[in-house]
Amino acid sequence: MALKKSELYSSLWASCDELRGGMDASQYKDYVLVLLFIKYVSDKFAGKPYAPIQIPPGSAFSDMVALKGKPSIGDDINKKILGPLAKANELSDMPDFNDPNKLGSGKEMVDRLGNLIAIFENPALDFSQNRADGDDLLGDAYEYLMRHFASESGKSKGQFYTPSEVSRVIAQILGIRQAKTSNDTTVYDPTCGSGSLLLKIGDEARHGGKDVLVSLFGQEKDSSTAGLARMNMILHNYATAEIKQGNTLASPLFTEGSALKTFDYVVANPPFSDKRWSTGLLTDADPFERFTGYGVPPAKQGDYAYLLHIIRSLKSTGKGACILPHGVLFRGNAEAVIRRNLIQRGIIKGIIGLPANLFYGTGIPACILVLDKEHATARKGIFMIDASKGFKKDGPKNRLRERDVHQIVDVFTNAEEHPGYSRLVPHDEIAKNDFNLNLPRYIDTQESEDIQDIGGHLHGGIPTRDIDALCDYWQICPELRATLFQPLRRGYSQLTALSSELKPLIHGHPQFAAFITGLEKHFKKWRKTAAVSLRELAPGCHPKEVISQHAEVLLLHAEGQPLIDPYSVYQHLLDYWSATLQDDCYLIAADGWVAKTQRILETDKKGKVRDKGWTCDLVPKPLIVARFFAKEQAAIETQQAALEATTAALAELEEEHGGEEGYLGALDKINKAEVTARLKEIKGDKDAKEETAFLKQWLKLNTEEADLKKAIREAEAALDQLAHDQYPKLSKVEIQTLVVDDKWLTTIAAAIQGELDRVSQTLTSRIRLLADRYAAPLPQIVDEVAALAAKVDAHLKKMEASAAR
After folding, report:
1. CA-CA-CA-CA dihedral for 372, 373, 377, 378, to nearest 10
2. Per residue in 446-492, pLDDT tens?
3. How many whole angstroms separate alpha carbon 212 and alpha carbon 356?
4. At 683, phi and psi to the nearest 5?
């Protein structure tokens, strides 16, 4: 059975539970990720003489399994597995698997390590059989774990991980995909953490089928994190990447003689506002001249120290990007001097403001400074984007959505200016603002105020100004405006129909109906094309390439359509990809168009295994039923409707006669046995005729209910068997129809239809709000208040008169 991404992730994350006792996430990540690494390299490279990773004899995962249950398991893992493996592959700072403070001592350690190893023995985790290898299934799982570890590591310990969405933005805006890269192309991260940002640049360089590995270089201060970065490189097929451990500012390890080594691309997510950046560094006599010509950063703010290190590490044609807190854009004193020098030299190409709370370890908003030395002298301005409002909630953190990533990259790459989002700001304008780069000075993201019209409130009527603001709709449907509104007086109009009649009036208008029909036809063309392409998926396909191609085509198809946000349409497809489509594609990549059923086995708390039926991931049972057994399903639904009616009638009887004085009130319990016994008791009693009739009616309904439940169970069991027996009979074409048409495209089409419905809902809601806002002019409200006050006064006088009597 193919390995589903979602199952892989949950299985690996479950392994963390074995170590969560008193250990912090920043510590137990080391153990889990090392085990993942050993399992992966063992499956992939054990016994292969020319593999990029050498597995010494006795150091494979199978050798680790053999240690389970041994009292010396921790020490043996250190000496027999990790030691030889680290020495053969120049790995450093492996975690101590014999640490009683973290893993317990004696039997506790033996059991804990044995249970942890057992999780990785799962046959589904046989990475040698992973045919979607080109999609980096394991690397994605590694990143998934890193994100969860970072989330749980607390405020001060999650900085080893840069959110993948931010890394992808940086990778794409640098333009490395379009550049002519080779193995000689160099990419450097001076604060590489676990290496996620570096790897995203490498992946971007290979995008589109280019079989080129750029050369990756990274330095990381924390020794254990540097070890993780090295393993991360190997898991992502960058075994030749150079990861060094040390303090980048005080002791940069990538040098050429007495100067810093320079690179084609430099990226970084350094520690925000590092207060100890100058430790071990003579700032006034820096041997690498990083501050010469710009200025020395303040002693307690290290942001510009890292930025100037990046600039000095770039070749004369180099490009870079650095994630920094917003303070670097506007703080004064020494940083203001550095900022002015950078702007005047034209090195800053762009600034992208990001949402707050994206990064682990801090909740403050950050920005991306985009650097470009190649065109610095000719640069006349800085392209700015304020993307602070585009995100989704993900637990305690915010995350960029796929649409946010794509929009940022599109706008930046094409230098598109959009009000409230992006613009090219000339250097002259920045100079007039004293070289302050704070984004709100140049991009107004405030939504326009919804103005209350005094004339409308005093005399009634919807202001023409508010109707004109809906001009996008009137351009599409010019006659719709006249249908909805009629002049009331100069500058004001009124609705031609009641507010409650707006929706059918808009939907039924010929121009609006034609507009919606045209959009539906437009997206049906995409669906038809996608259906043909998706049917061509075959074993060995690369799911990431599949979704990338289809998503781009859909985005292009949606662009230019009036009143439709193309990025919203794009997001719907990517949401479905995340929820369902990616797992299906990986199944097809591994097994092809095969619909396999499997039993659902559930183990209870006592260890007893229960059979909960069967399932099929690729072709769920409801699709089989809908296409092949609709008649049988309809018959069951008819029975279910009859059951609901019978149950409701029964409930009504019990409610009516269930009180203390009701016919059912005297019964200990309301059930068939009690009712039958009562009928025998009152048999022949002439005074109990009504009670007898009622109880017989209850008994009749109760019997009908039981019979219907039994019939439904039997019908559902028969239908379940019919559906199960249908799977082996399915042809490849039938499976493709069920999956592509009935499952994938039907779901996506429904989501896109929701976007079309939003168009009419937005117009209807706005007009209804305006109509209700100005429905009652002030004089009318005053008269209504006066009338109500008079009624209250009259009522009070009656009460006074009554009290006086």
Report:
1. -40
2. 888 889 999 999 999 999 999 999 999 999 999 999 999 999 999 99
3. 35
4. -60, 130
| Nearest in space to 214 (alpha carbons), one of 181, 243, 239 | 181
Q: Spell out the SS3 assignment of 702-761.
A: HHHHHHHHHHHHHHHHHHHHHHHHHHHHCCHHHHHHHHHHHHHHHHHHHHHHHHHHHHHH
Gap between the Cα atoms of 686 and 32, Å rounded:
80
Chain segment 225-283, per-residue pLDDT in tens: 888 888 888 878 888 899 999 999 999 999 998 899 999 999 999 999 889 898 888 88
Tell me the longest C-alpha to C-alpha distance in the chain. Answer: 116
- Report the candidate in 515, 531, 519, 585 with the shortest Cα–Cα distance to residue 557: 519
- Cα 632 from Cα 630, distance rounded (Å): 6
Specify whether the CB–CB gap between 724 and 717 falls below 8 A: no
Residues comprising the chain, all counted: 805
Give the span between the Cα atoms of 310 and 279, in whole angstroms.
18
Sort strands 609-615 and 598-603 into parallel, antiparallel or unpaired. antiparallel
3-state SS record for 406-462: HHHHHHHHHCCCECCCEEEEEHHHHHHCCCCCCHHHCCCCCCCCCCCCHHHHHHCCE
User: In this structure, which amino acid lies at residue 515?
Assistant: F
pLDDT at 526 over 90: yes
User: Do residues 187 and 214 make contact, with C-beta atoms less than 8 angstroms apart?
Assistant: yes
The total of other beta-carbon atoms located within 10 Å of residue 444's CB is: 13
Mean pLDDT of 613-625: 94
Q: How far is CA 300 from CA 156, 275, 554, in A?
A: 18, 4, 49
Q: Show the tokens assigned to 760.
A: 């009419």
Q: Say if residues 470 and 512 touch (Cβ distance below 8 Å).
A: no
Count helices and strands in the chain by DSSP H and E runs: 31, 18
Q: What is the pLDDT of residues 96-110, one digit of tens each?
A: 999 988 888 899 999
Asked whether the beta carbons of 571 and 401 are under 8 A apart, the reply is: yes
Structure tokens at 621: 């049972």
Q: Of 20, 25, 56, 24, nearest to 38 (Cα)? A: 56
Name the average pLDDT for the chain. Answer: 89
Chain position carrying tokens 């039938």: 734
Token pair for 33: 């990720």
Of 224, 228, 172, 221, whose CA–CA distance to 196 is shortest?
Answer: 228
Residue 255 to residues 185, 258, 263, 413, Cα–Cα distance (Å): 17, 7, 11, 32
Using pLDDT thresholds of 50, 70 and 90, give the confidence band for residue 131.
very low
Specify which residues 387 forms β-bridges with: none
